[in-house]
Structure formats: structure tokens, C-alpha cells
Amino acid sequence: MESLLANGSARVSISFQSLTYRREILNGGLRFGPRYLSNSIPMSSGFSSLRCTYSPNNKENISAGSVTHAKEIDELIHAEEVKQWESGKSVNDIAAKQGITIRRSCRPAPPAGGGMVPTNILEQIIWDKEVEVIQSKQRMPVKTVEGLIKDAAPTRDFIGALKQSYLRTGVPALIAEVKKASPSRGILRENFDPVEIARTYEKNGAACLSILTDEKYFKGSFENLEKVRKAGIKCPLLCKEFIIDLWQIYYARAKGADAVLLIAGVLPDIDIKYMLKTCRELGLTALIEVHNEREMDRVLRINGVQLIGINNRNLETFEVDISNTRKLLESRIQMIQEKDITVVGESGLFTPDDVKFVHDSGVRAVLVGESLIKQEDPGLAIRGLFGKDISN
């Protein structure tokens, strides 16, 4: 939401200009896209957003795509979150109305100052990530990242790879995670070679790979993502990052990602919508992660969602319960099928019975890290997870 709301100038800009923008959009005179990002409506330092430029010679031959863009931007400009922001509500109050408990822009003060402290590990990660992203953008502005994207290889079909694997094997497609550590378990693998692990996963039937890029808490890096992409690995790659800023999506694309993770427990609807739009412009797939029923219902109301991950781990307590998958799907599976959404099961999957349980609940792919990476032979671990060989 900070992408659209968290700067006072945004309140003035959207209020004053929204009707003008709306008229120009419907006339086909506004163009949107990554190359126009630098002249965005003034927003917070956390995001660059709503890049719009007027083209008076662009009014004829409005394509279906232009109309879609117009509707998307019009919805963003007139979103309920924007109205609430303009009325004086805080970013965190607006997020809380959507069930989001992770607070944003809350810097811990020195102990003597009695400042705010994080209520859980996810909130701490997000606060640290906000500082990290600001520093990263100072070192490498968006325009520089855009230049890197021009030289990046085309993205690969992440969802297509999952569907093909499911049809081939009859079991949920595997997104195998390249992860060295986690906040709850510490170091998972001392002898950690991301490229060698990725090759082993691919050889033993992984449809896609998830590459952890958070450094402080997961000992990952965007360099690991880039190394795997440049090593000739054919599996599409998910950038597993705590994304709070469009800059991270652009940087993931530049480093070789084919998909990115968006966490509904952190991002309000307006941010998810705009980030989805950005992903489409960059050719990326968005895996939107939910971990409770309210988040699932929020995401199902958003147009254009193709991939939903159900995290069986409570993001605040880190407790795991795989029955969460069935609870979130049992009354929603028909809607999910009608929308042609692929559901990914995440966390707590260690045995063939676990995989069967989520499969029977409606899952068609699983994202697995810990139960594979901790084994001396990750390839053998994949066969143990599914109870059979799923390699080609």
C-alpha cells in the first residue's frame, strides 16, 4: 500500500489528477509500462508507481489490452484504500481493515527511546526489509535495473511447467526450494552449493525451483538466483523474497526470475493488484501466498490471479498444520477451478501421505524446501517425498 499511499504528496496528486487521468485513460491517451516508471505520480520512497504519460496521437485503434489497462488504472485510482487514505487514515489502519497485522514503516527506536518493537518474526523481517530496499535503491536506481532487464533472457512459463509435470506424473508438481537456512531452524545445509542443488532437483523431477534471496534470515541472495539461471538450469525459477516494493520485482526479473512471491499477509489488495500488473508487463508469474481464510477470500476477489500458494505455516508463530490446506480449499474449490487457478501447497510436507493429503484437497503443486535440502542426497529425498521416481 505504500506504493500508492504512504507519501503525503500522493494524497494531493491522486485527488487533484484522478478525474483527468480517468478521462485520458478512457480516451486511450495514457501509456503504461516499465519504461515509463521514472515519471510516476509522487509516491513513497518505498515504491515507484502509476507511471502515466500522455500521448495525443494514440487515441485511435484502442486495443482490448488498452481498455484493460484503462480499467485497471481507473480501479487503482478510485480504490477504497485511496479514499480512506485521502480521508486521513494511516497506512497501517487501512491494512488492518483487511486483516493485515504486519505493521509497516515502524522503525525500532533505541532501547532508551521506548520505540515500537516487532510483535513477531515476520514483522521484524519486513521492517528490516524496508531498510534494505531503501539502501538497495540508493545504490541501484530503478532506471539502472531497467537497463539490466533489457539484456535479460526471456522469462519461461512457470505455470505451464507445473501443469505439464502434473499431467505427466499424476502427482502435484514439485517446486523444489534452494534454501540454506530459516529463522526457525537455523542452518539447514552447511555444504551449500545452489547450482549443484538446483541441478540435482531438476534431474530428479522438479518442475520449477524456488530460490531464497533474503540474506539476513535465510542466508540467500539474488546472486544465487542469477547463478542458477546462468548455469543452464531449464526449470523456471521463483524468486522467494519478502516483496514490499516494485523495485524488488524489477530486480528479480533482471537477475533471471520467471516468477515472484507476493505475500497477502503483508500486502494490501491495492498493492497486490498493482504488483500483478507489473508482473504481467515484465512477463513474470506471481505466486500469491495466503495462510488463512480471510487472505484466501481477499485474493480470490482480485482479477488476474493464476497461482495461489497455501502456506500451512502460521507466518506469525511459525507453527505448521497441513490441515490448513483443506480448510482453505473445501468451500472454495469450485471457484478456484472456474477461475483456472493452480493451487500450491507449502510447508509441512515430508511424506507421501502428506502429499496425498494436500493433493486430495485440491492442490496441484507443492513447494518443498526443508524436507529435501536437509537430506544428504536431495534427489533421493524427492523420491521419498512422493513415494516414487518422478524424474523424466
From TrEMBL:
InterPro entries per the UniProt record, alphabetical: Aldolase_TIM, Indole-3-glycerol_P_synth, Indole-3-glycerol_P_synth_dom, Indole-3-GlycerolPSynthase_CS, RibuloseP-bd_barrel
Record carries keyword Lyase: yes
Gene Ontology annotations of biological process type: L-tryptophan biosynthetic process
Stretch forming the signal peptide: none
Top-tier EC class: lyase
PANTHER family listed in its UniProt record: INDOLE-3-GLYCEROL-PHOSPHATE SYNTHASE, TRYPTOPHAN BIOSYNTHESIS PROTEIN
Domain of life (superkingdom): Eukaryota
Catalysed reaction equations from the record: 1-(2-carboxyphenylamino)-1-deoxy-D-ribulose 5-phosphate + H(+) = (1S,2R)-1-C-(indol-3-yl)glycerol 3-phosphate + CO2 + H2O
Originating organism: Carex littledalei
Domain Indole-3-glycerol phosphate synthase: residue ranges: 122-384
Protein name, per record: indole-3-glycerol-phosphate synthase
GO molecular function terms attached to this record: indole-3-glycerol-phosphate synthase activity; phosphoribosylanthranilate isomerase activity
Sorted UniProt keywords: Amino-acid biosynthesis, Aromatic amino acid biosynthesis, Decarboxylase, Lyase, Tryptophan biosynthesis
EC number of the protein: 4.1.1.48
Pathway: Amino-acid biosynthesis; L-tryptophan biosynthesis; L-tryptophan from chorismate: step 4/5
